[in-house]
Write a structure and sequence with these properties.
The chain has 24 helices and four strands. The chain has helices at about 10-15, 30-50, 55-65, 70-80, 85-95, 100-125, 130-135, 140-160, 175-185, 200-220, 230-235, 245-250, 265-275, 290-295, 300-310, 325-340, 345-355, 360-370, 380-395, 400, 405, 415-425, 445-470, 490-505, and strands spanning about 85, 430, 435-440, 510-515.
């Protein structure tokens, strides 16, 4: 994961002409408006990964796979030595189960932790991949993968902000509930149990939200003169970009409306927002272990929400006409109650309350205001602080974040909306040269932002090397030219290996590769 917003060089050239941050109809030609709509689409993706609950959990799975295994990885070096990859070493040497052997136990914990989180990611993002990974001997069950991913996520946050689990969910107690489900052979929670798959996954949900927000922006930017046929001719209504909407129409028993400016399209975007913001396990406690998968899986949530529209609340199909926060509040509350889950605004309210009352998070938000973050676990501090900032702003302005295309063009475009858009633009972007740079904050010290950028990507490189160490055969790769082209491969290797050595006490160059043993 690179944590960056990228655009083609030709789009950068066009967008250099946009001064205010949002390209408004009448101010620019069609080509520039189209270019901005692409940037707008990618910005919505940034919001998904940095501001939604599902996005936060997925963004932190990458560091979680390193942090959850940190002690075991250092123990592995003590027992086995610096040997890569751990997966290859295990295949070569673990011919039989030997639970009494310290080396076996250490490797088993590392590989199981890593792959359980990996299975969770695949299952949530593209559910169909479950058919393949369920054949992996390390796979136990969907429920177990969800449990490990969520508990490692909470453990990561608690290690930074709440070691005694005073306000975060008590993940240290969850193993009892999930063990009972496994012992009682509850489907989805024991080895060999059935795997139920939703018709859409988080990739469909994210792309659907980004595309339909982009369509609304273009529709209002051109005075409501674009039709479905126009968008179809532009190639904007196919594949992963349209799949969630097609499923929405089917599950809600609806026909496609005449226009993008329809209460039904507004409801679709609201359903996507609810689907990608589960609340069980974070920020609230798990309410019912047996339905944990259904409560937190965005694809299943999406299906349930759509059916609740058809079966219980068909009136919502025509409800949203003003794109207002009051409409968001009422509709989101009705649908959240229908699936027996707290609404996204209830989650945002709790998170906002934490940030204003818990000393560790008060300090974190002080760091965020200046971008002067503590060194320890700096990427987690940066990512979580920006998530909190997004949630606080969403609590005050839910309509803007649910229907941003409406608020970026047309009559609802305002200075307040522009400020929100600018505040939550991507932290890290590429430029026409392809290199990644930190964004410019008008209210923050440029040098401090650059320091935060440098520290962040030092950790990202360490997470990548850690991943390579665990599962990638062969030598380490130091191909970080996706980050910068201004340094040689030798310089990039020295930069990445230095931070890795700081974390694990050994240089990557000192590792022996299994094939060479």
């Amino acid at each position: 994961m690179q944590f960056v917003l990228r655009l083609r060089p030709d789009l950068h050239h066009l967008l250099d002409r946009v001064e205010s941050g949002i390209a408004k109809s009448g101010d620019y030609d069609f080509e520039t408006i189209q270019a901005f709509s692409t940037y707008f689409h990618e910005t919505v993706h940034w919001w998904q990964h940095s501001g939604s609950i599902s996005g936060l959990i997925l963004s932190l799975t990458y560091p979680s796979q390193a942090h959850i295994n940190h002690a075991e990885l250092k123990r592995y070096i003590e027992l086995t030595g610096p040997v890569k990859s751990i997966a290859a070493y295990n295949r070569l040497n673990a011919k039989e189960v030997n639970p009494g052997d310290e080396e076996f136990k250490t490797i088993n914990v590392i590989l199981n932790n890593f792959h359980d989180i990996e299975f969770f990611k695949y299952r949530v993002i593209v559910p169909g991949t479950a058919r393949q990974f369920s054949l992996d001997p390390l796979f136990e069950s969907v429920g177990h993968s969800f449990f490990i991913a969520y508990s490692s996520f909470i453990n990561l946050l608690s290690s930074c902000f709440d070691r005694e689990l005073e306000f975060l969910p008590k993940a240290d107690e969850w193993h009892k509930g999930f063990r009972d489900l496994s012992d009682n052979k509850v489907d989805g929670y024991f080895y060999g149990s059935n795997i139920e798959l939703p018709s859409v996954g988080l990739k469909d949900i994210y792309e659907g939200q980004a595309r339909f927000s982009q369509l609304q922006y273009l529709y209002f930017a051109y005075g409501g003169n674009l039709t479905w046929d126009d968008f179809d001719e532009m190639g904007m209504l196919s594949g992963v970009y349209y799949r969630a909407f097609s499923s929405f129409l089917e599950l809600t028993e609806s026909e496609r409306p005449e226009s993008i400016d329809s209460p039904l399209v507004a409801l679709f975007l609201l359903v996507l927002d609810l689907a990608m913001n589960p609340s069980d396990g974070f920020p609230f406690e798990i309410m019912h272990y047996e339905s944990f998968i259904e409560s937190v899986d965005p694809g299943i949530r999406f299906m349930f929400l759509c059916r609740m529209v058809a079966l219980r609340h068909p009136e919502l199909k025509g409800y949203i006409t003003e794109y207002s926060s009051s409409e968001y509040f009422e509709a989101s509350k009705l649908l959240s109650d229908a699936i027996v889950c707290p609404s996204p605004l209830e989650s945002a309210s709790l998170i906002s309350e934490w940030s204003e009352n818990k000393p560790s998070l008060i300090k974190l938000m002080e760091e965020e205001s200046t971008f002067d973050f503590s060194d320890e676990n700096q990427p987690i501090r940066l990512i979580f602080s920006r998530f909190i900032r997004y949630q606080k702003d969403k609590l005050k302005n839910p309509a803007f974040f649910c229907w941003p295309g409406v608020y970026a063009a047309g009559t609802k475009c305002s200075e307040a909306g522009l400020r929100l858009f600018n505040e939550h633009e991507a932290l890290f972007k590429d430029k026409p040269d392809g290199d990644i740079y930190p964004r410019v904050f008008p209210d923050k010290n440029k040098e401090l932002v650059q320091v935060a950028f440098d520290k962040f990507y030092s950790w990202v490189a360490t997470y990548d090397l850690c991943r390579q160490w665990i599962i990638n055969d062969g030598d380490f790769s130091y191909d970080y030219w996706w980050l910068t082209s201004k340094y040689s491969m030798d310089e990039l290797e020295a930069w990445a290996s230095s931070h890795f050595e700081f974390v694990f006490g050994v240089k990557p160059q000192n590792f022996k590769v299994v094939a060479d043993l």
